[in-house]
Amino acid sequence: MCEIKAYGLRDDGEELLLESVIRVEPQGADTWRLLSLFGEERLVRGKFQRADFRENKVYFALGDS
């Protein structure tokens, strides 16, 4: 099984948000719930950008924190 790594994109580059992601769920306007294989959970505020299944990565353009 290939788990996904989630990355946040900012002007200064990309930031790893969570590894071994098995689920991405929308949680409202530009908010996403990421769940990992190991039970970790992270809420991400930003716009979904793209999924690269060859590289096993998903990308979010991060909003202001």
Could you characterize what this model shows?
The chain has 65 residues and is mostly beta strands. It has one domain (4-62). The chain has no helices and five strands. The chain has strands spanning 4-10, 13-26, 31-36, 41-52, 57-62. The protein has a five-stranded mixed beta barrel with strand order 1-2-3-4-5. Strand 4 (41-52) and strand 5 form a beta hairpin. The N and C termini lie far apart (33 Å). The mean pLDDT is 93.
Write the layout of secondary structure elements.
Blueprint: E1 4-10, E2 13-26, E3 31-36, E4 41-52, E5 57-62
Parallel strand pairs: 1-5
Antiparallel strand pairs: 1-2, 2-3, 3-4, 4-5
Please give the radius of gyration in angstroms: 11 Å
Order of helices and strands: EEEEE
**Strand order in the sheet with the most strands:** 1-2-3-4-5
CA distance, first residue to last residue: 33 Å
Helix and strand composition category? mainly beta
Number of structurally distinct domains: 1
Number of helices: 0
Mean pLDDT: 93
pLDDT below 50 for ≥5 consecutive residues: which ranges? Answer: none
Helix content: under 10%
